Amino acid sequence: MNHTEASMDALRQTGDELADATVAALFESGQVGTFNTLMRYVSTVGSALPDGLPDVAREYLEATRVPPPWVDWSEMEKARLFFIDNNVHISTALSFASMPACYIVPHVAKLLSATHGLNYPSKRMAETGQFTVFLMQPDAFEAGSRFIPAAQKVRLLHASIRHHLKRENRWDAAALGVPICQEDMIGGQMFFSMLVLDSLHRLGIHMTQEGAEAYYYAWRVVGAMLGVDQDAVPKTLDEARQFLDLYMIRHMGPSDEGAHLTRQLIDLYEEVVPGTFFDPIVSALIRYLVGDTCADWLDVPHTPWDTVVKAVPHLLGVLETLEDRSPLSAWALDRIGHLTSVLELSSLTRGRVMHYAIPEQLKKDYGVSNAVPRTRRWTPPAATVS
C-alpha cells in the first residue's frame, strides 16, 4: 500500500493493544517486580512458565509464543543465509547507520534518552545486536531458542514506555501522537531492514535481489511479533522505500538528545576499536552512511578520515569479488565476519546475556544462499521524494 500524510497521521494514534493492556494490568496490580524477577528464568522457547507468574502475563506469553501463521520458512532460511554471508557488514550498518538514524528523529531520540540514559548507549547497542543474532540462528523459532522470549519482552518494554509517559503526563500526545506509535514502530523496522540494505549497497557489498528481499521479509516477521500492524506494513522493497522516505521527511531534524546520544555512540565504538589511530574512522563512517546533512544535525565531527573512508567500498568490492569467484575465499571471509561480529557483540555485552525488563520508572531528567548467483545484483528502489 502507498502511505499518505493522512494515513501516517492515523498510525500515530495507535499503540499495541495487547501489550498495553498487559502492562497496565501488571502496574495496576503492583506485580511488575514479580514479573521481571520470574521472567529472568524464561529465556528460551519451550521453557516452562514459572509458578507465581501473574495470570495476565501468562495469558500474554501464551498468546505471543508462536510466530504468525503466514511465515514462509523457506524465505526465512534465505534470510538466515544472507545474514551469515554478510553478518559483519550488517553489524556495521546497524551500528553506524541504523542507530544514528534513530537519533535523527527528535522525538525518538527523546524517548531513547528517557529509557536508556544518555550515558549508556552500550546497553541499547548490546540489546539490538543480541536480538539480531538470536533472530538469525537456525533454530530461532524452535525449542531452546532465545529469540521469541526476547521479542515478547521487548514488546512489553515498548508498552511500559507508553504507560509511563502517558500516566506521568510527560508526553504531548496531541502534538506527537501515542509514544512508540505504529508509525514509529514501522519506521524502526525500516531502519533495521531497508536502511541496512541501503548501507550495504553504499558500502559496495554484493547482494542479490533474492537476498535483499529475504532479509527484508525476516524483519516483517519480527515486526509482526513486536506488535506492528501488518495491514500497514510495506510488503515490498518499493513500498518500504516510499514509507521510509515519507517518514524521514516528516520527522527528521536536529535535537540536543540526538547529538548527545551520537556522541556517546562514537565514544563507545572508539573504545571498541583497538588503539587510538583508527578512532576517527567511527565518525567518518557514520558521516559517510547517513550523509553530511544528517551528520551535521548529529554533530558528527569532520575528520581527515572522511576522505579515506570513501575508499572502503572499493576495498570491500575487491573482497566481494574474491568471495564470488572462490568457495574457499567465501568460507574464509564468512568465518572472519562471524568472528568479528562475535567479538564486537561480546565487547558490548561483556559476555553476558542481556535481559529485557519492564522499567518501573523512567529517567527523572527526561525533558542470502550461496546457491543463488551473486552476479544478479540488488539495486535499491529509487527515492520517492526529493
Structure description:
The protein has 386 residues and is mostly helical. It has a domain at 80-138 and 174-349. The protein contains 19 helices and no strands. Mean pLDDT is 81; it is low at 328-333, 335-354 and 364-375. Pfam families: MPAB_Lcp_cat.
Which value, in Å, is the CA radius of gyration? 20 Å
Quaternary structure type: single chain
Shape: globular
- Per DSSP E runs of 2 or more residues, the count of β-strands stands at 0
Percent of residues in beta strands?
under 5%
Helix-strand topology string: HHHHHHHHHHHHHHHHHHH
Helix count from the secondary structure assignment: 19
Q: How would you state the average pLDDT, rounded? A: 81
Q: Can you tell me the residue ranges where pLDDT is under 50 for at least 5 consecutive residues? A: 328-333, 335-354, 364-375
Note the gap between the termini. Answer: 20 Å
Main beta sheet strand tally, sense and closure = none
Structural class: mainly alpha
What is the percent of helical residues?
55-70%
Describe how the helices and strands are arranged.
Elements: H1 5-11, H2 17-28, H3 32-39, H4 55-63, H5 73-104, H6 106-115, H7 121-135, H8 147-167, H9 173-176, H10 182-192, H11 194-202, H12 209-225, H13 237-251, H14 256-272, H15 280-290, H16 292-297, H17 305-308, H18 312-325, H19 327-349
Summary of the model, kept short:
By secondary structure, the chain is mostly helical. The chain has helices at residues 5-11, 17-28, 32-39, 55-63, 73-104, 106-115, 121-135, 147-167, 173-176, 182-192, 194-202, 209-225, 237-251, 256-272, 280-290, 292-297, 305-308, 312-325, 327-349. It has 19 helices and no strands.
